[in-house]
UniProtKB/TrEMBL annotation:
UniProt-recorded name of the protein: Subtilase family protein
Segments passing through the bilayer: none
Entry-linked CDD domains: Peptidases_S8_Subtilisin_like_2
Position of the signal peptide: none
UniProt-listed PROSITE patterns: SUBTILASE (PS51892)
Entry annotation: catalytic residues: 300 (charge relay system), 338 (charge relay system), 567 (charge relay system)
UniProt entry keywords in alphabetical sequence: Hydrolase, Protease, Serine protease
Residue intervals of the Peptidase S8/S53 domain: 295-621
Keyword flag Protease: yes
Disordered, as annotated region: 15-39
Biological source species: Chryseobacterium profundimaris
Length: 822
């Protein structure tokens, strides 16, 4: 058994948390209440105009050769009080289905009854009758339909919107909303269970039938102008697919189809290509993995399974090609392959030349081929492909996806690819590790590294350009996204490395992710690039490239240092996950996510002085296998996994040995805390706290605050009993100097950890400031899920003495063993 294992600690108390909420008063809403007549007339004028415009549109559609539409379903764009978004405020009572939540309270909707319900509520509001009060929260209804392209189209389609040719065929991805959530499964222990269960089943049947009807209606609309070219993917609150449609149909889809919330071009998806083929060879004896070793799914270009360095890790009957018409699972990519290199980086994360013979492989590799011989994904919708792969490989828990779009991820709605990955991670308790994506060395459109340098945008400043943002699907909320850092600095007479050791690799795309999420989550060594001292020639150098296994199907050696990319940083993290799976084979995937981030550390000087720029480039830093999987005399880690609901709080506590907090001592103590969780998602929503069914955050006790006081502050109700605390006393207590903003201000401006589903923070304090116990609370917050389902999470806390040989592991372990026995 490992001498310094991570230790479980236990939840001490749970209850209803004291969540901070702002005042309900809003001057616009109150003004609408005072001026009922004016507000009601304004809204009714807008609905009347929208109905007139819609009827005019319907009357000329047939003669203009446009698809038929339902006269009672009218698109609407409105603004409500932003504080009501993601609360119990339900637009269905107004006959409106939400198609998409936008910023600042704006909502794309569709009236399902020709504004009958809305106008009825407006009239009740005008007459100050019961049932109309919430009309005051309707701030504005926008005229016309010209707002739709701005809110529905991708940036590229917006740029060409005015020049769309009605006779040209466009290949697009379309997202269609369906705002009818699954109902809550009734509690079998409550009265009337049988009747409630039957009603629940009927609701499911009705919902499924209506969902299929909407798909059929959408298919009829598209078939009027083209055809659907992929499977339709069900994401519960929406569905998506790829279509081929004329420009005439595109215009009609965007301007008039009521339920569309996103239209974008189809992404180009590929792996990175090798630049050279120089290498050396090594002779080692390779031993197959332990019998119960985990199997990591490599979703890539296939693998050269008979390569002597890899073959012992392959279970051939598990290999599969997902390329239509091509059953081969070999890596046919020229110049050494791509998937073969990724698989080799999992098995030999530090290079083959570093291992001793005989060498036992750390895990098995499952070969799941999706890229063709040109290293591209061409014939399958990515969201569909992810669902198919997970359905076929339900005995595999971890998947390495070193495949990205060639373009940066969009920042409005979660992409169908990333949202599907999120849905699968939450439902199947699996983990995706995804590369952050690569900035090309040169680019015909002017977005390559050389292009930036020639424009005077030098490294690392060009990384802040919008094109250098992480690539789809790396913005996935629950996946671990991996960027790359340089593993060495390099200089010779003609070239020098772009950046030094532990600087962000010049090709590595950076964050933040969508809605301010911390992305990449972590970084690893994926290589670097060099630049000539004269002429600004950017190239791959063997010295700056990781040592990787190559496919020899097209000739060349079996090992090479001829390619770089975040593609090869990601499998090094997959190797660490394989080691974690050996330690925690039955734990929820959130523990693996949390431990990965807990064991990461920003390179100096950012560890002690992080900035928004450093977080955007490195995420939480470079993971250490030692810190991720175990401890030492100077470091101890506690963890727990659990489930929590919205408006519930869980408190955990760690006892600190008295000798460690002696006033005479001046040790630097590092406290690291990571919370990781997953939840159900809704793709039609924006912002993390709307995208998720419920969301979590964590908070800590203050300096000198003991368990009892912290408990009463965090939990306003415990087992039905209301608690109180002295607000003035608590406000006077100093807070720990957490680095990243959470519920209290951190040192890093512009980054808030609560926007992410892996939330790490750390503080460095003097040992004499340590109290007798340190307390932490996990708090559940309401999202869109009215059924208030459970959210799985992990909490990890580490305490480490910095720059000292003082031994703390055993003392803290024993102190908390005694505490948990009491």
């Amino acid at each position: 058994m490992e001498k310094f294992p991570h230790l479980q600690f236990f939840q001490k108390v749970s209850g209803k948390p004291r969540l901070n909420g702002g005042p309900n008063y809003n001057p616009i809403t109150e003004g609408n209440k005072r001026n009922r007549g004016r507000h009601s007339r304004n809204l009714l004028n807008k609905t009347t105009q929208l109905k007139t415009d819609w009827n005019n549109e319907l009357s000329v559609r047939q003669q203009n050769g446009l698809a038929p539409l339902d006269a009672d379903i009218i698109p609407i764009f409105l603004k409500v009080n932003p504080k009501l978004v993601n609360t119990d405020f339900d637009l269905k009572q107004f006959g409106i289905e939400i198609i998409s939540e936008e910023d600042n309270g704006y909502i794309i909707g569709a009236s399902l009854d020709g504004f009958f319900s809305l106008e009825e509520k407006i009239n009740k509001f005008f007459n100050d009758k019961r049932g109309g009060g919430q009309i005051a929260e309707f701030w504005e209804i926008i005229d016309g339909n010209q707002w739709k392209p701005e809110h529905i189209l991708s940036d590229y389609l917006k740029s060409i919107w005015q020049s769309v040719d009605e006779n040209t065929t466009y290949r697009l991805e379309v997202g269609v909303a369906f705002d009818k959530p699954l109902s809550k499964v009734p509690d079998q222990y409550k009265r009337g269970y049988a009747l409630k269960l039957e009603k629940h089943r009927q609701n499911l049947i009705e919902r499924d039938n209506r969902f299929l009807e909407r798909q059929d209606e959408f298919e009829d609309f598209i078939n009027y102008y083209g055809n659907i070219t992929s499977e339709i993917i069900d994401l519960e609150d929406s569905f998506c697919c790829e279509v081929e449609i004329t420009g005439k149909g595109l215009k009609d889809l965007v301007l008039n189809y009521p339920f569309v919330f996103e239209v974008s071009e189809v992404d180009e998806i590929e792996g990175v290509q090798a630049e050279s083929e120089e290498t050396e060879s090594f002779e080692i004896e390779v031993i197959e993995p332990e019998e119960n070793a985990p199997e990591i799914g490599v979703i890539d270009s296939g693998i050269m399974e008979r390569n002597k360095y890899i073959s012992s890790a392959i279970i051939s009957e598990n290999s599969k090609s997902y390329i239509r018409g091509d059953v081969s699972t070999a890596d046919h990519v020229k110049s050494g392959g791509h998937g073969t290199r990724v698989a080799g980086a999992i098995l030999y994360p530090y290079g083959i030349s570093t291992v001793s013979s005989p060498y036992q492989l750390p895990c098995y590799i499952r070969n799941l081929r999706i890229l063709n011989q040109d290293n591209k994904l061409t014939d399958k919708f990515p969201a569909q492909l992810m669902q198919e792969i997970i359905t076929d490989n339900q005995d595999c828990r971890v998947f390495n996806l070193s495949v990205n779009s060639c373009l940066p991820a969009r920042i409005k709605h979660m992409s169908s690819w990333a949202a599907t990955i999120d849905k699968l991670i939450n439902e199947k308790d699996i983990l995706f590790l995804i590369s952050a994506g690569n900035i090309p060395i040169s680019d015909k459109k002017g977005f390559g590294i050389i292009n930036y340098i020639k424009e005077g945008k030098n490294y690392p400043d060009y990384l802040n350009e919008p094109f250098c943002r992480i690539a789809n699907p790396a913005q996935s909320s629950f996946a671990i996204t991996v960027g790359s850092v340089n593993h060495i600095s390099f200089n010779d007479e003609d070239f020098e490395s772009i950046g030094n050791k532990n600087d962000i690799s010049p090709f590595s795309r950076i964050g933040t992710g969508i809605w301010g999420m911390i992305k990449p989550d972590i970084v690893e060594y994926g290589g670097g690039l060099s630049i000539s001292r004269v002429g600004s020639v950017v190239s791959v150098k063997n010295e700056l490239s990781p040592e990787l296994v190559r496919s020899t199907l097209h000739g060349g050696p079996a090992i090479g240092t001829d390619i770089v990319g975040t593609s090869f940083a990601t499998p090094k993290v997959s190797y660490i996950v394989a080691q974690l799976l050996k330690l925690y084979p039955e734990e929820n995937i959130n523990l693996l996510r949390g431990l990965l981030v807990q064991g990461a550390r920003l390179p100096e000087p950012f560890f002690e002085n992080p900035s928004a720029i450093s977080i955007k480039r490195f995420g939480y830093g470079i993971p250490s296998l030692e810190r991720v999987t175990k401890n030492n005399d100077q470091r101890i880690t506690f963890y727990n996994t659990g489930n929590i609901r919205a408006e519930e709080g869980h408190i955990y506590s760690l006892k600190i040995p008295e000798f460690l907090s002696s006033p005479a001592e001046e040790y630097d103590v590092l406290i690291e805390v990571t919370v990781s969780y997953t939840a159900k998602v809704r793709r039609t929503r924006q912002k993390t706290k709307s995208y998720l069914s419920s969301w979590l955050d964590w908070t800590s006790s203050k300096v000198g605050e003991l368990f009892g006081g912290f408990k009463d502050y965090v939990l306003k109700e415990i087992e039905g009993k209301v608690t109180t605390y002295d607000k003035e006393v608590r406000n006077a207590m100093p807070s720990w100097n957490w680095k990243i903003k959470g519920d209290m201000r951190g040192e890093v401006d512009g980054i808030n950890r609560t926007n992410s589903t892996v939330q790490k923070d750390w503080a460095i304090i003097k040992s004499h400031e340590l109290p007798e116990d340190i307390n932490f609370a996990i708090r559940g917050h309401k999202g869109w899920d009215k059924s208030n389902g459970e959210i799985p999470y992990s909490l990890i806390v580490s305490i480490e003495i910095l720059n000292s040989s003082l031994e703390i592991y055993e003392a803290i372990r024993i102190e908390n063993e005694i505490e948990n026995l009491v």
